[in-house]
Amino acid sequence: MPETAHPGTWPSKTKGWFLEFRLIPVLLWSFTSVALGTALAAWQTGSFDPWLLVVAMALAGLIQGWVTHSLNEIYDWRSGTDRDAQPRALSGGSKVRNLGLLGERDLWKVFVVSSASVVALGAYVAWARAAWLALLIAAGYGLGVAYTWPPLATAYRPFLGEWLGGFPGVLLAGLGAYGIQALTLSWVAVLALAAHASVCTAMLVMHHYQDAPADAVASPPKRTTVVVLGPRRSRLYAVALAGAGALVYAALGLLVNPAFLVGAGLTAAAAVVHARTDLGSLASVTRNELRVIQLGIAAGLGVSVILDPALWPLLPLAAAGYYAHLRVVAPPPELARAWRRTGRRGAEGGNSAGPLSGP
């Protein structure tokens, strides 16, 4: 186990809470979906309340960043999949257990505190805006809890992790942000957020590439879609998901507003990155997962800022959060170049003992 400086002290606990939030995935899933939902509401209704954006961001971030991730950390550690010693950067949990920063009791505290915060904010939204919005918040919270908590544990079942966890979670976060602003929903919002949810779901499939060997031997086995389909078919599945998102963005760009064509182009580029990922190279998977995340954030935020230029401050905020996570997280030495220099081809020379092999 890697050495840590005085586990149990406030500095280590603070770092543990930060790492547990997993800011880079949250930027793609929650931050960008809320931004997109807010921008769509402002564009379609002509009104924008910055305070309601903050509330929506807090709700989505709490549900994904600490509610879902803390439970995932607890049960993935119990099953053994996060204890595997193979080098992993983004996947394999937040590493707070491996590093001795947080114990299981600490993670339950993260869950309880974040859950209480969601309840308080949800009650505020229902009182200040509309009672029906509480149903969206409760549904998003329930999907996050069910992602790892038995007996459903959708993350441990093929396809359910994507379609009863990832996809609807992203969709509800964005629709909740739209509803908080507009007090209604629209089909354009549903389709645009479904396009972004497809991007996120494709990233979730890629996220499980490096975990597949450990997932397969966990107890209980974590039978993700990648474990069941195998590497090549999983990659085709991820390409299809990203491609579907690009097509929906393109249709909206041609039929509704040209701004969506920005999302189409960047999402199509992400599909190409998925297709070109070398499943036998840890460095390739790590580097390309970061590229897919970058393209997904750029697609969603690019469309958002074009639709509502008042949201431009979200761009530097996303960049600052992304690089803060990069600086705090210490990747395994084998993946350091792929982690920090995602744009350089030299990173391909990393560990070639791949996370996946076979047909």
* Residue windows where pLDDT falls under 50 for at least 5 positions: 1-6, 343-354
Q: How large a portion of the residues is in β-strands, by DSSP E?
A: under 5%
CATH top level assignment? Mainly Alpha
CATH-defined topology: Farnesyl Diphosphate Synthase
Cα(first) to Cα(last) distance is 33 Å
Structural class: mainly alpha
Helix tally equals 14
Radius of gyration: 19 Å
Oligomer: single chain
Give the overall silhouette.
globular
Number of strands: 0
Question: Can you offer a commentary on this structure?
Answer:
The protein has a single domain, classed as Farnesyl Diphosphate Synthase. It has 359 residues and is mainly α. The longest helix is centred in the first third of the chain and has 30 residues, at 50-79. The protein is 68% helix and 0% strand. It has helices spanning 10-21, 23-45, 50-79, 104-128, 133-146, 160-182, 187-207, 212-216, 225-229, 231-255, 260-275, 282-307, 314-328, 336-340. The chain is globular. Helix 2 packs antiparallel against helix 13.
